[in-house]
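[job 4471] stage=fold_predict status=RUNNING
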Amino acid sequence: MAGAAASTLTVARKPGGLYQNNPATREAPWVRRTLLTLGLGFFLLFLVLPLLTVFIEALRKGWAVYLAALLEPDAVSAIQLTLLAAAISLPLNLVFGVSAAWAIAKHDFRGKQLLITLIDLPFSVSPVVAGLVFVLLFGAQGWFGPWLQGHDLKIIFAVPGIVLATVFVTFPFIARELIPLMQAQGRDEEEAATVLGASGWQTFWRVTLPNIKWGLLYGVILCNARAMGEFGAVSVVSGHIRGYTNTLPLHVEILYNEYQFAAAFAVASLLALLALLTLVIKQIVEWKAHSQVKEAP
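[job 4471] inference complete, writing structure tokens
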């Protein structure tokens, strides 16, 4: 009897370790169909339909109008500023994220929990509030405003303010992606490398970095997408100066408010394409990471 039961369980076991006939995972067919229908319905209504609308409206007046909207000087300036803000903020977030994750996952120190809380701060603070804080600090009437004016330095309503706001709203992404990954991996390999005489840099480059490369790349992708799409904090510190401090999201808002709908949707389509490209790259990274895990001995 016991042997038959064991045999039954063995046959019922899936490759992943679950049981096909586990009563706790069975439901009526109509429940599965209902859940699937609801999921697909939400997907089509809130994701596919808005994306299709953006591209349909962008191309409604033809390719000539679409390309003219993208090649217009203010649009080119907005694209360049968006790329510049992302190009500056991404390396800064990369250094901070790796350093913070290394410190939190590999070392014990007083104030670790406080550091984790501070890393999560941009997730809980509205980007608009963050922008107002920068205005309070670096604006003409802010705490450091007189000193900045005395040294002919301008942060608010200029490119440095946009970069600061972008860095603030994006710096948790890489750190938050790496911290649980590095904590799950533990410290054994780093400690073994240290015992064998490896320096700190050698341990990082040859042991830690290969173990976290996919998670790091995943965090970089999300950070870059967030940097290019940021609106709230950048809107507060930019001043909306056309051709100078407008990023792509701000340029879309201005065009829409001026009833230039075709141009607004044309520029918005670039952000939509960025979102789609981010999803494709994210999927490729996840697939490669999964393949590497399956191939590991």
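[job 4471] summary: The CA atoms of residues 252 and 264 lie 5 Å apart.
[job 4471] exit 0
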